[in-house]
Amino acid sequence: MNISTNQSLRKAVIIGGSMAGLLTARVISDYFEEVLIIEKDKLPSGPNYRSGVPQAFHPHRVLPRGKIIFEQLFPGYTDDLLAQGAFLRENKGIKLHFPYGSLEVPDERDAGCSRALLEWVIRSRVEQIPNVRFITNHEVIGLAAAADERIITGIHIRDRGDLGSEQQTTLIADMVIDTSGRSSKLGQWLQNIGYELPEQERLKVSLGYSTRHYKIPENIESKWSTILIEGEQNKGKGSGVFAPIENNVAEVALLRIGGDSYPTTNSSEYEQEVDNLWDSSIAEVLRDLEPSGAPRGFRVSECIRNHFEQMTNWPSGLLVLGDALCNFDPVYGQGMTVAAMEAEQLAVCLQEQRNHPQDNFERQVLVELQRVVEPAWWLITVSDLRFSGVEYTGPFSTKGIAFAQQYFDLYLKQTIGQSNMELFEKYMMMTGLLTSPREIINPEMIAAIIVGDTSQEGIQFKAKWLGDNGEITESFLHEIIPTFT
Fold first, then answer.
1. Integer Cα distance of 424 and 443 in angstroms
2. 247 Cβ contact list (under 8 Å, min separation 6)
3. SS3 label, residue 134
4. Can you tell me the distance from the alpha carbon of 142 to that of 155, in angstroms, rounded to the nearest whole number?
5. DSSP 222
6. Which of 199, 346, 353, 468 is surrounded by the most beta carbons within 10 Å?
7. In Å, how far are 91, 213, 244, 338 from 62, measured between CA atoms?
8. Beta-carbon-side half-sphere exposure of residue 279 (alpha carbons within 13 Å)
């Protein structure tokens, strides 16, 4: 793709109108004369759930890094959410209960809301962009390619409202971007036109969670913006989270990883499972709230990371972002934030291409997107492989996983046990994707954590990982931990 200074390309087509597609549309609207978003659903006129986002009923969040990018792309979007009844989290408390102990920290100015409301607010902003247009209730059924199949020239679509019809329409475009999520058929479409795909990374999580909504009476103001109780499944304890969303409604989610059992969707048993959590904080809050409907379950069998950047013959005119590129364990709330980071990186690449055009632009973008994905993917792999029943398959070594698991355990135990907020903030900045894992996984920080640790876990860590000179070296870390450039 060749963009020269002061030149716009004519048309881009985005497959999928959920969050990744909306963020991408906002970014590329500065570079294309026309942007079409092809969405298989009929979009609701308000902040309502839709069939194309089956997980929308369940908790969603935007991590700190994502909030910064959202605000840059859609200034004042938090005010829009609050105007629609979202819960003001400012001056409320966050209660975190870990196996190592509990912490309470104040929340910052933010809006608690459902996925449906967040998506509707952002989509309303995108609809106001003059050169962006939605084509709804249409299904993408394949890619259109040039005769030599080295250039993607558009997509084939079918009207979902025309039942039984095989008639299709071809949309010609300078750029096709797949943001269709976990259900993406991009790999199949590429194989249909003769491409071979690299091996995927797969994290088989067998995750299940169950969400129930509760009405918050007007005479009761929630003290907490979030209560998170992290369980220990090997002791029969799952995890739970409580958070108010919009219009005096709170959501509670129970979750388990590894497939040994799943949280109940039975109304009469739900509060019993809440009572069985390690900490009683959520159960105590629910005594003053009224359920609004039955619990709903959701299952995620596996998370997949594609490595399209390894294809030296990747076709021009084609990109992929969001869950279609790499999808995450939703427990950690990374999906929308990584999509925002990818959109931000795409904007950087487009500007660079405009100023200094290069061949193989699309493949280079995929390389850059993998650098965005890497920290989030590695963090969920480290976390989820703690659970029996979770498996990793793929072309890359997991040599450093056990090291990171043991080190994070020592780090959090010391942080929470000593209420060391400086260390805790560093950890939360890492999990919020504001900083690299290398900020807390480096020789100096490791030495500070393990010095004087005479616990059984500390002794075992030192015996297993410290070298002959009694320290962790940078060369050792370089061998087992990604560099996260």
1. 18
2. 85
3. strand
4. 6
5. -
6. 346
7. 19, 20, 15, 9
8. 21
